[in-house]
């Protein structure tokens, strides 16, 4: 539901919507408006019958009377999974906000926005989550120097990002080595590379320690996790001799962190500004490919994939390292996915499904115990 509106002429209410997956195709919604209050009973439908979505994003647009005080999208699905909304717009200006008036009120479930994700959360120790758009574009959330970045309350410009990685390697030469996964991404105007931070107390030595990979921000505008894994690397390196948990980690794991899998998406328009508006930062890569669905398909899946240079480089890089496990961070919905995405457990259960379920349940329970928000 929107904040209270005050227009002098009819206006346009538009958005994108879809179902979460092909096997849950029957999400239904009603776009509506209220001339009086925000009570559910006061809303009037903008169309005759509920609209059924598909798994593909589709645009919807409605003309609303000038007298309308509120507009809303009411999900009326039965026995489905997840109704996805994105880019809600009134008269060409987005109404989703990360600060100020909330998009929705009195809801019993999270509002699903921005490609199936709830709005990013921030706290006093982190930079503010990115606003979807801004009439007065500001770069106050960007760190323009390494010194500024090391205060850990802003996002790095691309130059500061590369300086930070170099700082890690030069400051902790016995613990940290920066690997280049891909030297040049497809962006024709901005030079970007994909890097990995290798953290180990046995650098350059043969080791039997299992290799573990954290990767992040395969969707370019999902940058809270980009910040978080950089902060994680900084903490591990600075506490390798003082924190017993970090010491145990380094003694038992060969750790790799890829902070930014999709730099062309994050720094799409310029290397100096991250902004979640589909212009400065984008969900896809420069070639407009959904990178999280770009890996070779498993046998039995009838489809083709246009493998991108970023994807092929990561495949080539991970193959000789034999990672025993990896975690790929996104921003938004509180969800843990485990294999397989291509089939349900009933169709083809993974050999380690019980372990995955046990681990995911414990992780989710711990998160909820620590922070119930």
How many discrete structural domains? 2
CATH class of the largest domain: Alpha Beta
Strand percentage lies at 15-25%
**Cα gyration radius (Å):** 23 Å
Question: Can you put this structure into words, describing what you see?
Answer:
The protein is α+β, with helices and mostly antiparallel strands. It has two domains: 84 residues, Sandwich (Jelly Rolls), CATH 2.60.120.200; 194 residues, Aminopeptidase. The chain contains seven helices and 15 strands. Strands 11-12-14-13-15 form a five-stranded mixed beta sheet. The protein has a four-stranded antiparallel beta sheet with strand order 5-1-7-8, with no helix packed on it. The longest helix is centred in the C-terminal third of the chain and has 18 residues. The radius of gyration is 23 Å and the shape is globular.
Q: What is the compact description of this entry?
A:
Helices cover 20% and strands 21% of the residues. The strands form four sheets. A five-stranded mixed beta sheet has the order 11-12-14-13-15. A four-stranded antiparallel beta sheet has the order 5-1-7-8, with no helix packed on it. Strands 2, 3, 4 and 6 form a four-stranded antiparallel beta sheet that branches. A hairpin with an 8-residue loop joins strand 2 and strand 3.
Q: Which key features would you list for this structure?
A:
Aminopeptidase; single chain; globular; 20% helix; 4-stranded antiparallel β-sheet; 5-stranded mixed β-sheet; Jelly Rolls; 373 residues
């Amino acid at each position: 539901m929107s904040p209270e509106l005050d227009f002098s002429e009819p206006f346009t209410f538009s958005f994108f919507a879809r179902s979460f997956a092909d096997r849950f195709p029957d999400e239904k919604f009603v776009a509506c408006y209220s001339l009086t209050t925000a009570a559910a009973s006061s809303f009037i439908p903008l169309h005759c019958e509920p609209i059924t979505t598909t798994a593909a994003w589709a645009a919807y647009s409605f003309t609303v009377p000038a007298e309308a005080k509120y507009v809303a999208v009411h999900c009326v699905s039965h026995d489905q999974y997840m109704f996805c909304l994105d880019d809600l717009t009134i008269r060409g200006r987005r109404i989703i906000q990360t600060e100020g008036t909330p998009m929705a009120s009195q809801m019993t479930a999270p509002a699903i926005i921005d490609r199936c994700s709830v709005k990013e959360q921030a706290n006093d120790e982190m930079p503010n989550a990115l606003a979807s758009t801004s009439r007065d574009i500001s770069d106050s959330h960007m760190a323009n120097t390494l010194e500024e970045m090391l205060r850990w309350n802003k996002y790095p410009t691309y130059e500061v990002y590369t300086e930070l990685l170099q700082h890690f390697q030069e400051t902790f030469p016995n613990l940290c080595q920066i690997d280049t996964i891909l030297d040049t991404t497809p962006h024709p105007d901005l030079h970007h590379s994909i890097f990995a931070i290798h953290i180990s107390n046995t650098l350059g030595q043969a080791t039997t320690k299992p290799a573990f990979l954290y990767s992040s921000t395969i969707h370019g505008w999902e940058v809270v996790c980009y910040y978080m894994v950089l902060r994680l690397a900084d903490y591990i390196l600075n506490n390798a001799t003082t924190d017993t948990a970090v010491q145990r980690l380094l003694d038992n794991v060969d750790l790799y962190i890829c902070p930014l899998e999709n730099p062309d998406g994050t720094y799409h328009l310029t290397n100096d500004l991250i902004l979640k508006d589909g212009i400065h930062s984008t969900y896809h890569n420069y070639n407009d490919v959904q990178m999280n669905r770009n890996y070779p398909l498993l046998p039995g899946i009838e489809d083709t994939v246009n493998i991108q240079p970023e994807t092929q480089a990561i495949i080539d890089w991970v193959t000789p390292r034999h990672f025993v496990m990896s975690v790929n961070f996104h921003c938004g919905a509180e969800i843990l996915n485990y294999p397989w995405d291509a089939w349900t457990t009933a169709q083809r259960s993974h050999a380690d499904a019980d372990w995955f379920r046990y681990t995911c349940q414990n992780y989710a329970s711990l998160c909820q115990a620590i922070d119930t928000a």
